[in-house]
């Protein structure tokens, strides 16, 4: 009986300690918090980062793209039929990928953002931002207290990022606001001033779609200039399509999707001069 009570006491003590560590305040993270979001770290160091767009639930395609040299994956849940279960499986299947998983959520709702971070996303891309209040909500839902009100909940985040996830998540999660309309441009100064926002993204195609103005036209370029000046003036990072990598001030880029990359890769392969030596089957995966 004594042995059984001792075992129960040991288990209870271990469980209590684990719970205490899990819910410990994140205050200690401010000094030298462990950084595992390598894309965010590069941005903080003044470097540019590029993410590949993912709209397919195929884990093999995801792993190929996530290990192709991109800094992050832009997992598209606004304009695709992907489910959170699909994405969870993709991230787990390729949990050692070099690209950090980011998710463009359908909207800045508590449920969408909670699910995204629970399954292991370290970047939250918020679409259709027209007000500072929308980004305040996004930050609040993505961050643990005291910075936000994210519920501890469950998920595969700890298995992906380590047992100290609760104490380090707030520093590692990166928040992106997408400006897609003239209304968003009009509020860009207030959006850029929201604490916790890291990147503001100028959505090139939607700026045209909502304004009717094309790239190169004075009205269009004036919107981009206003976004750039507000974002850089607030000390944030500026994002846009990869085609804008030579534009002044931009450092966060969205590359085309996997289908586009397959087409370009196939074209390049067919245009290559044959070496006359056949590759060993499976060598491309080594």
Descriptors:
286 residues; alpha/beta; 8-stranded parallel barrel; 8 strands; globular
The outline comes out as: globular
Q: Work out the radius of gyration.
A: 21 Å
Helix-strand string: HHEHEHEHEHHHEHHEHHEEH
Query: What would the average pLDDT be, to the nearest integer?
Result: 88
**Low confidence ranges:** 1-30
Q: Give the termini distance in whole angstroms.
A: 56 Å
Read across the widest sheet, the strand sequence of neighbours is: 1-2-3-4-5-6-7-8
| Proportion in helices | 40-55%
Strand content: 15-25%
The number of helical elements comes to: 13
| Number of DSSP E strands | 8
Main beta sheet: 8 strands, parallel, barrel
What does this structure look like?
The chain is an alpha/beta fold and 286 residues long. Helices cover 44% and strands 15% of the residues. The protein contains 13 helices and eight strands. It has helices spanning 2-22, 38-44, 59-66, 84-93, 110-118, 132-142, 157-161, 165-172, 182-186, 188-192, 204-211, 218-233, 258-271; strands at 49-54, 72-76, 100-104, 123-126, 174-179, 199-202, 237-241, 250-257. Mean pLDDT is 88; it is low at 1-30.
What would a concise description of this structure say?
The chain has 286 residues and is of the alpha/beta class.
Which SSEs are present, and which pair or pack?
Layout: H1 2-22, H2 38-44, E1 49-54, H3 59-66, E2 72-76, H4 84-93, E3 100-104, H5 110-118, E4 123-126, H6 132-142, H7 157-161, H8 165-172, E5 174-179, H9 182-186, H10 188-192, E6 199-202, H11 204-211, H12 218-233, E7 237-241, E8 250-257, H13 258-271
Parallel strand pairs: 1-2, 1-8, 2-3, 3-4, 4-5, 5-6, 6-7, 7-8
Helix pairs in contact: 3-4, 5-6
